[in-house]
Design brief:
The chain is 73% helix and 0% strand. With 223 residues, it is mostly helical. It starts with a helix and ends in an 11-residue tail after the last helix.
Length: 223
């Protein structure tokens, strides 16, 4: 290995270190935003239903500000190097997906789609080789949503909102049925999906108790 080769290799190593630090800065920024959103959204467990819209209004600007981070990240990552760097931001992105999904459910009672999450977070199709939203990360975000909704089903009853567990039950059963039809080959994702059975059981117990006490009409089933 001659001196020219050594010099060139050092240059490449330095470029990698510099790029990693720049990406890390953006991941830190995304982390701050997701922590803020999760902190605000955690208040749903002690917030009466009539105050939820105001709480969501305080989350949406932070959620939309993630678009700036997405654009910066896409500009930093070289073409066709998405899979090389994605693990740096996967956890933060999954939390952002969870936040978007929870906001959508609380606002409309519906499931946010993968394209809709991309739109909310400002992730564009033309960035696929640099910065994208993989299906697995979307599914991880939805599993986190179910985890949170199982808590909400219990806490909503404490707040006197007896219809919320029924709405959550119908939604989660529908989502669980959809997951059951997927061919999940990722071990981590498969294990997390299996854990949804416990969340579903917890929700069903709340619904049973509410229905038994005739505090709310029994669930009518999914769509």
């Amino acid at each position: 290995m001659d001196s020219c080769d050594v010099e060139r290799l050092n240059e490449l190593l330095e470029q990698d270190v510099e790029l990693r630090e720049k990406i890390k800065e953006q991941v830190t920024d995304l982390d701050k935003k997701t922590r803020n959103m999760v902190g605000i959204l955690n208040k749903i467990h002690s917030t009466p239903p009539e105050s939820i819209p105001g709480l969501l209004d305080s989350v949406r600007p932070i959620l939309h500000s993630c678009q700036t981070t997405s654009a910066t990240m896409a500009a930093l990552v070289p073409p066709s190097q998405f899979w090389r760097w994605k693990e740096m931001w996967s956890n933060s992105l999954r939390t952002a997906i969870f936040s978007a999904a929870l906001v959508e459910f609380l606002a409309t009672g519906k499931l946010i789609s993968l394209p809709e999450v991309c739109q909310v977070l400002g992730i564009k199709d033309e960035w696929k080789g640099r910065f994208a939203l993989p299906v697995e990360d979307y599914l991880h975000g939805l599993i986190s949503l179910v985890n949170e909704l199982s808590r909400l089903a219990v806490n909503a009853v404490t707040l006197g909102n007896f219809e919320a567990p029924i709405q959550i039950s119908i939604f989660v059963k529908d989502l669980f049925a959809g997951f059951s039809m997927l061919n999940l080959k990722n071990d981590t994702l498969r294990r997390r999906f299996d854990s949804l059975k416990y969340d579903l059981k917890k929700i069903e117990e709340v619904v049973y108790d509410v229905s038994l006490r005739k505090l709310a009409p029994p669930p009518q089933g999914g769509r």
